[in-house]
Amino acid sequence: MQTIQRAILVISFIIAIFFKGNAQIQKYWISFKDKEISGYNYKDNLSAQTIINRTHFNIPLYQYSDIPVTHAFISTLNKMNVGIVATSKWLNAVTAYLDPQQVAQIEKLSFVRSVDIVTTYMVASSTKIEVTPELMHTAMKQMKAKSFTSNGIDGTNMKIGVIDAGFHKLQEDPATSYLVRDKKILAQRDFIDPTRTDLISKAATSSDDHGRMVVRMIAGYDTTLKAQYGMAVNASFYLARTENGDREYRGEEDMWIMALEWMDSIGVRLITTSLGYATKMDDPNDNYKQSEMDGKTARITKAAQIAVYDKGIFITVSAGNEGDTNWRIISAPADAEGVLSIGATRSATWDRISYSSIGPADLPYLKPNVSCFSPNGTSFSCPAIAGFVACLMNNDTTLTNLQLKDIVQKSAHMYPYGNNFIGYGIPQADRALVLSKDTAATFGNITELHISKKVFKYTFEKSITVQLVVFNKKNATIVINQDLVSVKKGKLKIKRPKDAARTTVVAETFSTIEIIWE
Question: Which one of 238, 241, 273, 443 has the fewest beta carbons within 10 angstroms of its own beta carbon?
Fold first, then answer.
């Protein structure tokens, strides 16, 4: 059966390429009304590890979304010469390339809920290693990773899923070769081309080193240079390729969902992805609208929500790199409320780096959630924080995904004054370890002041001279602009900007002032 399914996928892939220029043949989601639930037994559909995970965290073992798509529905479509590309049990749907006549026929089927055109594309354990780093990545320094390393917290026994492009030359990269050598790559699957079983030694496209660099930021350690890039050096990995780096087309979205379901089926609790769906499509007519980054429109976002709230999975997602373009805002699935969306900061001042995408102004929740330094894309700040999360899981395996998300946010240097530029700021390992035991713990020098004058003056306890980051906001979270102000000999002076209702003043971790202009 698996051989037949793989053959269908390959044939469908070839069909997709053949008809790329034909406007009559397009890709659709075919959603079904219900499922065949009689005879379903979760023991036959969930792995032993998934059952253990769900039992441990009191997650229901029987879930409607786990029930496979009804075989009779797929059989009927096959008889209509419809080649199924991807199947999602969570969404109770399949994707396929259809012509208008097929669409009309399928819409009349009694078991079909809807046929929706796909309109958007993708933008782009074993031996324990002992680390004694002499060099440490800036993101790790920002997050005070030494609080983990000094306590022997390094992701041991954690299994991390990475959904990305290929992982070419993972075995040759000095910072990741040990993962292959020590058999820490537990499995790999190519959902674009299921005939490929090796995502490491051979590349399918020129972009297939992206996943390797992502893994480096989770667990990278160069034994020769004694340089550490990621925190979870003793984690193991499941790798999935869902992006065709040579094209920008919607096909990756359903492949991403299939990868997510695969990882859930084998008991993975932490998944990171540095992919996003928004704009810059091969066909501009296929771009998302900004209003659709609402946490409930994109199917990839819906799947991420199921993974978080129904399956207990922790997902970290890169916010996107459109902050200095007309688009500006995050992409899907970073808009999903349940995921931890990651932005990027500058190294010294800890404010938003220009390319990092911001959260939409009309979202009812904060995005991005947290951030850290990355000089070349949120693709690499995201896995850096995934390594942080893996260490927290390693430290306390009883914490649920939602408890962990809360701890990560509360540990960040700006909490509780988050904004849509960098979320709550940069997570701090020392704080996170305290919060793992006491979620009510508070940190730093936090001051909230109501100011009725047009000028705010403040004197610090110490006579310091330093630059502080300032976020001027039109409300509690939406930033108008960010700036740097100088404190000279302990004296700070800020004029109320036009249209600003609040201003957050922050100096890394030692002081945060929230000014509420009245």
Answer: 443
